[in-house]
Amino acid sequence: MTDAAILEHIDRQPHGRTSLKHLLRELRIRGDERGALEDALERLVDKGQLIEVRSGQYTTARNSREFVPGRLSIHRDGYGFLIPDHPIPGIQGDIFIPREATRGLMHGDRAIARVSWTGADGKAEGVVWKVLKRAHPSVVGEFRITRKGMFVIPHDQRIQDWIEIAEDMAIPPVHADVDRIGVTPRVIHSPADLDGLIVNVEILEYGSERDRPIGRVTEVLGAPDDFGVDVEIIIRKHHIPHRFPEEVLAEASRITETIGEAELRGRRDFRELPIVTIDGETARDFDDAVLVDRLPNGNFSLQVHIADVSHYVRPGSAIDNEARERGTSVYFPDRAVPMLPFELSTNVCSLKPQVDRLVLSAIIELDHKGEPLSWEFCRGVIRSVERMTYTNVHLLLEGDAAQRERYAPLVERFETMRELAEIMMRRRYKRGSIDFDLPEPLIEFDQFGEMTGVTRSPRNIAHRIIEEFMLAANEAVASHLEHSGHAAIYRIHEQPDPKRVMEFEEVAAQFGYSLGVGAIPVSKLRYSEKKAQGRRDYKNVEVPGSIKITSKAYQRLVEKVAGKPEERVLSYLMLRSLRQARYSAENVGHFALAASHYTHFTSPIRRYPDLIVHRLLKASLEGRTYSDEAELAAIAADCSSSERRAADAERELVEWKKAKFMESHVGDAFDGLIISVTRFGMFVELNELFVEGLVPIDSLPGDRYMFQENVRKIVGQRTRREFAIGGRVEVTLDRVDPIERKLQFSIIDRKPVKQKKPASSRSRRGEPGS
Fold it and tell me: pTM for this one?
């Protein structure tokens, strides 16, 4: 009996509860089958899908309002929330966990909360009834010796308790910090040598309401200001696997670059074709290569050749298991943590020029409107003729004489690529695909690895060419897998949450824009009143379920704001109103791309789902069934989690480097854009540096300011001066918080503000938010 069938059976019982004894009788289970049922119940309890309310008594989590599984989010002030795995009837939002109930818990733990109180507005409070899975097997922090003993202060402020270290657990197994260029390794003779250093600690006991967690030092990373220690901290804080096990390295070392005749058998030979790779200047692995031909009938033939990683990484191998654990490569400004060992990622699987490489190929015929007419897939072998860069291709297409002479045999082909890419862009636009052209920050370093500034990452027609070709290949593979009836992993992007859409509409209305959903503004919807603060709580807004939104509505608004002063803010807020894309074994389409079928096929060197899709595609081509849907669903969930972990780590390190860079600019003046306003101030993003910080509301000059939530503005009570999202301001950097890595600005007031005539007392009384 499957896990899903067990859950459905329990849901059908009176009050949604049953016991092991009843299950055995009702399901007529005897003998060896009893052990299988007990194993299944234990597995479901461990996952949090089944709640054992007392010994041998079960209810499903989705059927319980008292016991709620989810993930803990602990605030640095000590209190926390349990974020439920699924909506709970009668409960709005997250479950509050008071500070006194969070001892022994850590941010990110998966747990079951027992709800102790639910208010009329749906807000709930509870305590953690059971921890399902610990988020932190280890903690990184600063080693500190005090009169009360030895401790490690966690780098993550959301981990409240200091980790206690016994004297015999202070010296790590290897008495030196990690090997980094430019850092002299330290030899540790005694715990005193660790005082003030950054270490990684394995948690032995997680503590309780009375006792601190206990751990032992496993690594010394170095002094807080050592070169590269920030990256080492982030890697360990987010538990990113960064050292390949010995069996993985041994397996990788046995893979040869030589391609034998047996490996070529059954493959299509593309080696005589002028296939090229196009990547960034600093790219080290090349997993896609392309070619475009114009067919005799006037149509286009697009060839997308992807490194055949699945030929080298076999299911269940040590490399495969490690790749699944990592899920994705992680890219930091000055280094990368690859998903695959060097022998594969930058050598055997990398589509280097002038060498034979095994590929999995998609050949797509498109008409003059960019509409795909047919596609085929095959195993192949290529020998790319050039390793092109985005910069060189862009210059060539812009008419640069030197580049056109250097790549003369390829000029016509690149021009055909541009023609096809522009046709494909117009087709995507017509169907409603959203293209947010938000600037990507690019961290710049000097020769010593020190950050020197932040610039806008370049994006030109060469980037567009590769994007369009990869999108086409991904869609073609997804369509093929779905229509072939095989289980698959898709890249999905679900419809936006109506509540978030309406919150965006409220802001957009301040600028005179709308997505055109034709729904009631948030300010007119029912809301719960927070009497203590005298303001509206938009978390509990009831949004009509009939609201429908299409990607074309977003696309039209992106086009309207293009080039306008408010473009940066509204594009950012539109993006925030959308859900996160994720991997799933169930295809629900991709909202932002306006695609009914989409997957990730084009980057198997750096993304595990792409590797799985390669295996699925090969299986379908050979008439085999690769795997069951339950296994694919588990892989999809794991890879979605790994992707979020990588994104969080990359973002945090960039923000850290930005804050450190800005420490030398305290007192300097900058032009900025107001990107958010809150009751405690406004957030300003600097125009040139892509750095943001807070202007506290009580620091605003010349008046006493109040936040008016109904219009989302900060307004002076006497002068009526307003600060709103999209406003341009000049600010001074006052301070940089080195712990939280946050910036604080103040407004430069160069011109005296002319006071407006105060409104009448009658109008003031009727003013929303007053």
Answer: 0.87
